[in-house]
Amino acid sequence: MAIENTVRYSDSELERFKTIILDKIDHAKRDLELIKSAYMNDHTNGTEDTSPQFKAFDEGSAVNSKESNSALAIRQEKFIRDLKNALIRVENKSYGVCRVTGKLINPKRLELVPHATLSIEAKNIQKS
Question: Which of 1-10, 33-42, 67-76, 118-127 comes out lowest in average pLDDT?
């Protein structure tokens, strides 16, 4: 006979967190599309008729901007993956349990950082 973990959020609380996570995923996907569209933007920003020096500066700026957008896109994709993993934890009813202390993560923390797997207590232990 399996012993069920008695430290967990109730089904109704898990449903509330699931709603928060799904909302965050939708928002994060929209943000990712904006980042990708900015990354794919090949426009010259109206510099086609300006001096060659300004054009070179603008092209350098565009490369830097694309690199920044690429880094943002990678970070956003990781965020979405972390949120999806949180949904899996909701489904298997292990969501909100700190992976270090085994205690429930403060619900306010989960509302702000729904993909959190560590309580503040555990984060502080890691910093020490």
Answer: 1-10
The one-letter code for the residue type at 113 is V
Whats the size of the chain, residue-wise? 128
Contact 114, 17 (CB under 8 A): yes
In whole angstroms, what is the distance from residue 9 CA to residue 17 CA?
Answer: 10
Cβ pair 100, 123 in contact under 8 A: no
| Residues linked to residue 104 through DSSP beta bridges, in sequence order | 97
Residue 72 lies in a domain: yes
- Average of per-residue pLDDT values in the chain: 84
The C-alpha atoms of residue 79 and residue 29 are separated, in whole angstroms, by 10
| Structural domain includes residue 126 | no
Q: Which of 31, 38, 33 is nearest to 62 (CA)?
A: 38
